[in-house]
Write a structure and sequence with these properties.
It contains eight helices and four strands, in the order αβααααββαααβ. The protein is of the alpha/beta class and 198 residues long.
Length: 198
């Protein structure tokens, strides 16, 4: 996948002064509060069930049951599809957006000469995509422009077609940037063309 995406970045950037950085994360956060919340509810429910089924056990046995269920819950909630179902939408929005902002600055998208850096950020656990553009782009391109690309990429990811979806998103961003920021005779490559994965 890396080679395909990096070629797409090179192709897109040949037509524009813009700098496109794609990033794919397994998750934007570990969500420890969600993990503990699930584990606690899981433990209380199964411990209560054990008490109903085996009321004659010693108190220590119930404590051991509860501890075991708690640890099992912490293990179970690491399964991505299960964790995603226990995340609230506000939590997803906040964590993915904050992680995207952090990535924008960590990868120096704010340092291009004409402030024409753009981050295509995909967080797989949360099924969330953010496209962040620097201030130079904001002056010429409406923020809502990127939402069309976000929706199309999201559709491809749901079809289990991340590579092609991300490639198309990069090329479409390149089309938009080439209109507002066409290449010049000296068209420096200010940021690496690599796909960032974590």
């Amino acid at each position: 996948m890396h080679e395909t995406i990096e070629k797409a970045v090179q192709e897109a950037e040949m037509r524009t002064l813009g700098e496109i950085v794609p990033m794919v994360l397994k998750a934007s956060d570990a969500y420890p509060a969600t993990s503990w919340r699930f584990a606690f509810v899981f433990s209380v429910f199964l411990s209560g069930l054990a008490y109903l089924l085996y009321p004659y056990f010693d108190t220590l046995i119930y404590f051991l049951f509860q501890l075991g269920f708690l640890l099992s819950g912490l293990g179970l909630i690491q399964i991505p599809w299960l964790k995603r179902h226990f995340l609230s939408q506000p939590e997803i929005e906040e964590e993915t957006y904050q992680r995207a902002i952090q990535a924008f600055y960590e990868n120096n998208l704010h340092t291009t000469r004409d402030r024409t850096g753009i981050l295509i950020f995909v967080s797989l656990l949360e099924h969330k995509i953010h496209i962040l553009a620097d201030s130079g782009i904001h002056q010429k391109v409406e923020k809502d422009t990127w939402q069309v690309i976000v929706k199309q990429l999201s559709t491809e990811i749901r079809k289990n077609n991340l590579k092609e979806g991300l490639r198309e998103a990069i090329l479409k961003c390149g089309d938009i940037l080439s209109h507002h920021f066409p290449k010049t005779p000296s068209n420096p490559n200010e940021l690496p063309n690599k796909l960032i994965t974590k």
